[in-house]
Amino acid sequence: MKVSETTTTALKDALKSGNKAWKQARSRVPLTAVRKIPLTALGWLVLLGGLASLGAYLAWDWAEAAAIMFAALLALLAAIGQTWGGGELALRVTVEQDRLRKGQELLGRAVATNQGRRPVRGLKIELPLGAEQADMAVPSLRSGKSFTREFQLQTRRREKIVVGPPRTVREDILGLIRRVRSWPESQDVYVYPNFTSALGTLSGYSRDMEGASSQVITSSDATFHALRPYESGDDRRHIHWKMSAHTGQLMMRQYLETRRSHHLIVLDLNRENYGEADFELAVEAAASLAVSSLSNGQPLTLYAGKTVLKATTARTVLDFLTEVQLVEGAQDYRRLVRWALAHEAQASVCSLITGPGVTMRRMQQICLLPAVDMAKTTGIRADAGATFTRRGATSRRLLNIGELSQLPRALNGVSLA
Q1: Which of 4, 64, 186, 350 is most buried, judging by how many CB atoms fall within 10 Å of its CB?
Q2: In degrees to the nearest 10, what's the CA dihedral of 230, 232, 233, 236?
Q3: In the CATH scheme, what architecture does the domain 263-411 have?
């Protein structure tokens, strides 16, 4: 078919006008506004194909172009009809537990309620579960009706899983339009490393239970020392009334200030010293020591790289160890131990944890860094799958463990042969 010169000129003028209008629109309408149009890639292809067909029909009066244009228009109208509206939906997502042990199942439920007057159809819930996603198709909901769907996720590693934020999605059958609404709520679920709390008491300095006390005299500690005459300003709660009646003057109780057993844990985070399984074992050992200390009322300070954590509850330290990661080019472990000891002079129990990248000989040297009056120093070398070995005396010992189950008996001096 031969196109006349007049038609060609008109088409060129139309293209120039369209190009000019597109540039003006592009300068006025930001790209983000275009992205908000709920068309999928296929939807944009159909729309542009329909517009191109319209241009071809107007220019050359092609019947085929008109058919394509009307087909694209009908498809888009049908997609709009399927995804339009949907009522007022309320969505709530809950989990049964926000603290789990590695290997446990994460369980929860999503509840969608239609709070509007019109029914809700063709809806899907997309719920991110960390790196994974749960997809839940919602059946048609009449006004006031609810839909509940339970979900689960098998945990396989130590991590913090962010549940949400959920999205509700409406799509047409052809996949031309995808309308998404995001809900702001999300929940953090901590998957703890494996640990054992059956390590016994990690003994250090303590007057009442575990050893020698300092010689600082005070009036408000738990260990009785002596009696002295009452002086103005003394706390009357510490008057020894029986002895006061016997001597004829007020007598005050005096006490020795005790030194509580303080546990210092220094965890190496240098990537060069670990394989992946080795580091998980090291974290499990640190978690076990920390939980055991805190369950026995023992103050704890954890050094992990540049982070210092003075923990008072097992939950605090386990939350921290759930997220701890290896660091590229971290501080040399020997320097880290020196730094920790310089800032924690009150510690009487010291646990040093590293990986197979630090040799047994070098680890023995590091275990000599704590002062001679340190009640107990334990070096733990986490080498996953390796044979258990133990060196040194009870007060300064070095353990090479290949699995967590070896740690309790090793600390209690039980043979693993």
Answers
A1: 350
A2: 40
A3: 3-Layer(aba) Sandwich (3.40)
